[in-house]
Amino acid sequence: MISWRSTWSIYTRELMRFLRTAFQSVLAPVLTTSLYFIVFGAAIGGRMPDLGGVDYGAFIIPGLLMLTLLGETTSNSSFGIYMPRFTGTIYELLSAPVGVSETLLGFVGAAMTKSLLLAAIILLTARLFVDYSIAHPVLAVFYIMLVAAAFSLFGFILGIWADNFEKLGIIPMLFLTPLTFLGGTFYSIDMLPRPWDTIALANPIVYLVSGLRWTFYGQSDVNIWISFGITLGFLAICVAVIAFIFRTGWRLRA
Amino acid sequence: MEPILELSGLSKVYPGGLTALDNVDLTINKGEVFALLGPNGAGKTTLIGAVCGLVRPTSGSIRAFGHDLASDWRRARNRIGLVPQELSTDMFEPVHRAVSYSRGLFGLAPDRDRIEEILRSLSLWDKRDERIMALSGGMKRRVLIAKALAHEPDLLFLDEPTAGVDVELRKGMWAIVDTMRERGVTIILTTHYIEEAELMADRVGIINRGKLLMVDQKDAMMARLGRTEAHITLARPLSALPSEIARFPVELEPGGEVLCYRGGDGTGKGKAEVAALTKALIAADIDYVGIDTRESSLEEIFVSLLGEGKAA
Ligand SMILES: Nc1ncnc2c1ncn2[C@@H]1O[C@H](COP(=O)(O)OP(=O)(O)O)[C@@H](O)[C@H]1O
Ligand SMILES: [Mg+2]
User: Fold this and answer.
1) Which protein residue has the closest C-alpha to ligand 1 atom 5?
2) What fold does the segment set B3-222 form as a domain?
3) Is B14 in the pocket of ligand 1 (CB under 6 A)?
4) Record's Pfam families (chain B) (predicted)?
5) How many angstroms away from the CA of B213 is the closest CA of chain A?
6) In B92-144, where do the E strands start and end?
7) Which numbered atom of ligand 1 lies nearest the CA of B48?
8) pTM exceeding 0.90
9) Phi and psi at residue A238, to the nearest 5°
10) Is any atom of ligand 1 closer than 6 Å to the C-beta of B46?
11) How would you class B133 by CB atoms within 10 Å of its CB: exposed for 0-12, middle for 13-18, buried for 19 or more?
């Protein structure tokens, strides 16, 4: 039996934490998105051909969105659980009559809300630079929420696994960022020479970027269902890992 | 007496092999104030952690309010509050919000009046909009108490509520404990200030190296282990103990000038016996010039028990 009040408390508190740094939370994505558009959209994009009939500036929007979302969602939720462990305030969550369901719904719900806000900010900023329209807006929102859920869970695992600040930063830095950059953010993997176009398919981020691009422009590097399936699979793995963590108390309970 | 918390055979071995709790059996009754007394590293925090879900017991069972904590933890934890030893709170949060959050987290509907009452009773109402980091250490601790009381628990753990707190604040804390006791909250507190246990607790448990060495009513413990010691300085030295006072537990100290009484218990029997002893001395025409009596405290009981614990 899940306690909705407890879930709501965790959810609102997480959002509050986000809003406490609202200025930074809004300004940072606006700034980075603008920079990417100035460099890739305006400077380089002018010399790029359209990709599948999509203007290059518009083409990179889903990639940029994914780049920011993955980074922000992962770091946000990993800090969200790491900091209470670090400062000891996690005692309250552990001693409360809440289980894995309340905790996850609260944390992940908040992460999804934040991601949608972030996505909205990025899309509005992008509008200043390029004209674009979204082919499947409802699916786009749904897909963003799905990815946000998966990566907030991933961040959650990271924040529980890490026992120092270095470890907290290392996975995003060593894996997430490079894989995102190599994941077709700024190019279509068709543009890669052989055999790199095939090797690129081993990068899971390719499917995420491609999936989001499909919801935007109705076309993508890989089939939307594969993208969707991989995102769901990743989500399921994360849920299973977290359920295991809560059941055993690994790194949470002494 | 209605048991509210029952630990049986509770053990905790930390990874690495340290036994922090060693087969602890303990029953806490409704409405009592129980002091868990022990030196640093004795296992007090571990015991509290095991009940509150912060520590996974290695073996043994815990029942709270009749619910087995291993299976029915939700219903038990609803009614348990914890004030941790460390001052850990979200420093950026305003007092009022931190306390309201705690209430919500435990699944209770918001209740402004109740929160106001809690904050007022802890003299935090004026600080309700302050961020916690702007408060003094004593106030931070009271915020933690307010958070623990926000869901109106029936059983409250206070882990070293007065450690590192000045005398004034300690007295304030005792008053808070008294108020809660009057409301019928069962309180388990840990401390290494023996005077605190003596002052506040109904029962005392002494723990060392994970073993609960003794649990008893505070008064009974004093009665069982308490001692009166009296030094009677004689007007003229004696060479041997006179037969008139042989029935008392007395010794003649080297030199024959001081008569030393050690006996009685913690109930005042010792004082009465010392009075009888002085009368016997006068009757036997042995004059004295000074009497110095003292009752042993829980502290001495504590120290002597720990000594035995070490020897074992
Ligand atoms: N998480 C932990 N891992 C390993 N050992 C621990 C841990 N927590 C406490 N201990 C050890 O267990 C013993 C009991 O600690 P604790 O319960 O905190 O004692 P107390 O609260 O009475 O001072 C100590 O020796 C302490 O070092
Ligand atoms: Mg302790």
Assistant:
1) B14
2) Rossmann fold (3.40.50)
3) yes
4) ABC_tran
5) 24
6) none
7) 17
8) no
9) -60, -45
10) yes
11) exposed
pLDDT mean over A156-182: 89
Domain chopping of chain A, boundaries: 4-248
Find out whether the beta carbon of B40 lies less than 6 Å from any atom of ligand 1: yes
- Ligand 1 centroid, distance to B25 Cα (angstroms): 19
On average, the pLDDT of chain A sits at 88
- CB contact A92 to B (< 8 Å): yes
Question: Which ligand is closest in space to the CA of residue B18?
Answer: 1
Q: Which CATH class is domain B227-295?
A: alpha beta
| Token digits of residue B116 | 């106001």
Predicted local confidence at residue B310, as pLDDT: 53
What rounded mean pLDDT belongs to chain B?
88
What is d(CA B199, CA B161) in angstroms, rounded to the nearest whole number?
14
Residues B59-93: pLDDT tens digits? Answer: 999 999 999 999 999 999 999 999 999 888 888 89
CB contact under 8 A, B84 and A20: no
Give residue B40 CA to ligand 2 midpoint distance, Å: 7
Tokens 């406490």, residue? Answer: A20
Percent of chain A residues past pLDDT 70, beyond the cut: 100
Q: A22-31, A40-49, B226-235, B289-298 — which is least confidently predicted?
A: A40-49
Looking at the complex, does the CB of residue A142 fall below 8 Å from at least one CB of chain B?
no
Report the 10 Å Cβ neighbour count for B24: 24
* Per-residue pLDDT tens over the stretch B17-32: 999 999 999 999 999 9
Distance, in Å, from the CA atom of A149 to the CA atom of A77, rounded to the nearest integer, reads 10
Chain A: residue nearest B147 by CA?
A: A92
Q: In angstroms, what separates the C-alpha of A242 from chain B's closest C-alpha?
A: 17
Q: Which is the closest atom of ligand 1 to the Cα of B40?
A: 23
Give the residue with greater pLDDT, B298 vs A175.
Answer: A175
* Two structure tokens written together for A69: 């979302």
Q: What ipTM was assigned to the predicted interfaces of this complex?
A: 0.88
Residue B8 near residue B25 (C-beta atoms within 8 A): yes
Contacts of A239 (CB under 8 A, 6+ apart): A104, A153
Pocket-testing residue among B18, B158, B302, ligand 1, by greatest number of atoms within 8 A of Cβ:
B18
Rounded distance, CA B45 to CA B7, Å? 15
- C-alpha dihedral sign at A19, A25, A30, A31: positive
DSSP string, B66-111: TEETTT-HHHHHTTEEEE-SS----TTSBHHHHHHHHHHHTTPPP-
Nearest CB to B53; choose among A1, A89, A253: A253
Residue B43 Cβ inside 6 Å of ligand 1? The answer reads: yes
Which positions in chain A touch B57 (Cβ < 8 Å)?
none
**For A60-83, what is the mean pLDDT?**
90
Residue B34 has pLDDT above 90, yes or no: yes
Q: Angle of helix A137-161 relative to helix A224-248, nearest 10 degrees? A: 30
Domain parsing of chain B, residue ranges: 3-222, 227-295
Residue B195: predicted pLDDT: 72
pLDDT at residue A222 above 60? yes
For A95, B87, B151, the CA distances from B84, given in Å and listed in that order, are 11, 7, 16
